[in-house]
Amino acid sequence: MAEAEAAAGKMKQFNGGGGGAGLEPERGRFPYCVVWTPIPVLTWLFPIIGHMGICTSAGVIRDFAGPYYVSEDNMAFGKPVKYWKLDPNKVYSSSPNAWDMAVHDASEEYKHRMHNLCCDNCHSHVALALNLMRYDNSSSWNMVKLCFFSLLYGKYVSIGGFMKTWLPFVLFLGVILTVILTLHLR
Predict the structure, then answer these.
(1) What is the torsion angle, in degrees rounded to the nearest 10, for the CA atoms of residue 97, residue 65, residue 31 and residue 41?
(2) What average pLDDT score do residues 94-104 get?
């Protein structure tokens, strides 16, 4: 018991006080957020699949955009349409800038990796950053968990972002439904 208390004393939660407290979607600033944008054609067919990035405490977006490349403030498929605000107080570290260090270290790691659409992609980059900072005292972040939580807790930046995500899918379903009904009614 005493060992657990001593360990808890050494491991303090990051206090995210300071810069980057407010969201500024019009400027593309999402401090302490996971951001998401649709991937043309792929998101049109499967609207829950898209491109993901993670932001620094100042709101600078970092995303694994392709083989050996992590972009900064220039997401591979356009501006974020959805964001999931995380709580910097849930970062477990003794370092005052643990959030930014984890995002930096994950980005440096992914600058040396080949991009794989199914296995090692933008979601994996964000998961590594969250694992490095032990967000929510967890080191089991992965693509599936991020996809689910982003779907559950993410908020659209605007009605335009919602439409950009869902309208192509609805139109695609409408075309398929029209074709099926036309062929079936003959």
Answers:
(1) -160
(2) 89
